[in-house]
Specification:
Layout lengths: L1 H4 L4 H42 L21 E8 L9 E8 L4 E5 L6 H8 L7 E6 L2 E2 L5 H7 E4 L8 E2 H5 L8 H11 L2 H5 L8 E2 L8 H14 L4 E5 L7 H14 L4 E5 L3 H4 L4 E6 L2 E7 L2 E2 L2
Parallel strand pairs: 3-10, 3-11, 6-9, 9-10
Antiparallel strand pairs: 1-2, 1-4, 4-5, 7-8, 11-12, 12-13
Length: 297
């Protein structure tokens, strides 16, 4: 109104706008710096909490590297629950899996199937009983050695911000491009990667933003196959794959499991066909052992 009434010229108005912007810029910068400072404090606090976490193994526990694993797995009278006010997920449960055997695990939601896989990897520890790999207590095997030879592909895949290649070779950056491409072809991800302008150098967001659930699972399967584990645990690892990709993956796994130990947690009947026997986890124990061609209770 001041310009219309002649109290303020257009030039003066422009000057006011320009000078106001210059005057407010340092204030905006200070606000942004304060926000970044608070974010830094929060990040530092989270980092401090991580650094203060106790180690996975007690310092007085003697750990060994057992060489190349055969793949014998044994649970003996294992009891486990996540807290004292929760029921036992495993209650004096025992299970023997011979090297080279592929066993299917079925059961209802919350029955402890995923917990079983975490126990075999040493990510959780039983309240009582023992878990042994090649007749050695899992708590006495060097954790890097153990997880370098026992791989698990979960239903909910963890991917990180970075390139597809970095996510595929996570933990094994020395793997050649030829092996990457061969493994990717066997799990069906090579086709969609080939359509991307930057191929394996395509960047993805945190948690695999920009990829479908099936593509994330296929990447995790590729990652597991690349490290050539002696034991491969699949926890609903094909649930998001389409029918064509699932068939290709199952054919790949049939070849891969030859001579290797497998634990397949799944409701996919086609995938369970790879198993020599199927065990049901119910009420904390393994029951209803189904062997190919017959069933025993």
């Amino acid at each position: 109104m001041s310009v219309i009434n002649g109290d303020l010229t257009v030039g003066a108005l422009i000057a006011v706008v320009l000078l106001s912007g210059r005057g407010l810029a340092p204030l905006q910068g200070a606000v942004q710096a304060l926000v970044q400072f608070k974010q830094g404090v929060i990040g530092l606090s989270a980092l401090q909490q991580v650094l203060e976490q106790p180690g996975e193994r007690d310092a007085d526990v003697q750990c060994v590297a057992t060489g190349r694993l055969r793949g014998d797995l044994a649970l003996q009278d294992v009891r486990f629950r996540y807290s004292d006010d929760q029921p036992w997920l495993l209650d004096n449960a025992s299970l023997q899996i011979a090297a080279g055997e592929v066993v299917g695990i079925v059961g209802g939601n919350g029955s402890g199937k995923t917990t079983l896989s975490r126990l075999l990897l040493g990510l959780q520890h039983p309240d009582s009983g023992s878990i042994r790999v090649d007749d050695v207590d899992v708590n006495h095997i060097d954790v890097h050695h153990l997880r370098g030879q026992i791989a698990m592909v979960p239903q909910d895949v963890v991917l990180f911000s970075g390139t597809l290649r970095e996510n595929i070779v996570l933990g094994a950056p020395w793997i050649s491009d030829e092996r990457i491409q061969s493994a990717a072809a066997s799990t069906g991800i090579s086709e969609f990667i080939a359509r991307l302008p930057r191929g394996y150098d395509t960047r993805i967001g945190e948690s695999g933003i920009g990829l479908s659930a099936g593509q994330r699972q296929a990447i995790a399967l590729t990652r597991a196959l690349l490290i050539d584990p002696r034991v491969l645990i699949l926890d609903e690892a094909t649930s998001a794959l389409d029918q064509e990709t699932s068939a290709r993956v199952i054919a790949t796994l049939k070849r891969f499991y030859n001579g290797r130990t497998g634990v397949i947690i799944s409701h996919n009947q086609d995938l369970l066909q790879l198993c020599s026997r199927i065990v049901q986890l119910k009420d904390g124990v393994f029951v209803n052992v189904a062997v190919k061609g017959k069933e025993t209770r």
